[in-house]
Each structure stands twice: as C-alpha cells, then as structure tokens.
Automatic annotation (TrEMBL):
Cited InterPro entries: SVIP, SVIP_metazoa
GO cellular component, one term: endoplasmic reticulum membrane
Keywords, sorted A to Z: Lipoprotein, Myristate, Palmitate
Record's keyword annotation contains Electron transport: no
Lineage of producing organism: Eukaryota, Metazoa, Ecdysozoa, Arthropoda, Hexapoda
UniProt source species: Triatoma infestans (Assassin bug)
Compositional bias segments (type: Polar residues): 69-81
This protein's record includes keyword tRNA processing: no
Name of the protein this chain belongs to: Small VCP/p97-interacting protein
Region annotation (Disordered) ranges: 55-81
Family annotation (PANTHER family): SMALL VCP/P97-INTERACTING PROTEIN, SMALL VCP_P97-INTERACTING PROTEIN
Basic and acidic residues bias spans: 55-66
Amino acid sequence: MGIILSCCKSADDDLLTPDAETRRKLQAEAAEKRTRQAENRGIKDPARVQRLQKKAEELERREQEAMRSGNTNAPLRWQMN
C-alpha cells in the first residue's frame, strides 16, 4: 500500500531547493574557498610568503614616504661626475 501512495504524492516534498539568497551565499563561500586553495597551490609555507609580501609592501611604503618628504638621500642612487 505504501508503494501506491508514494507515487501519488508530489516530488516537491522530497526535494527542497534553497531560496535564492541561501544559494548565493553558498556559491560565494565556495568561490572564496576555491580562491584560497588556488592562492596556496604550490606553496610549501604560505605563512612565509605572507611575511615576505608584507615586508616588501612595508619597504615600498617607506620608499614612497621618503620620496614625498623630499629626501634626496635615497639609497642606491647613481651619481655621474
């Protein structure tokens, strides 16, 4: 008897699809996860890479500040006599 009744009810009761907002949120989370995985692909020590990037950004920021302040004694400047 259960077999007959199971084919008479709608399939919508079994398969609930999430609303649009929930679907967007899940897709955004999946995209962020893929991005993080792609960034770390092939890198043995991601923390070291981040430290090196921060160090390079800090060095670049210092050089830009030195140029803005008018400091002409910047390192590695060539002088021709």
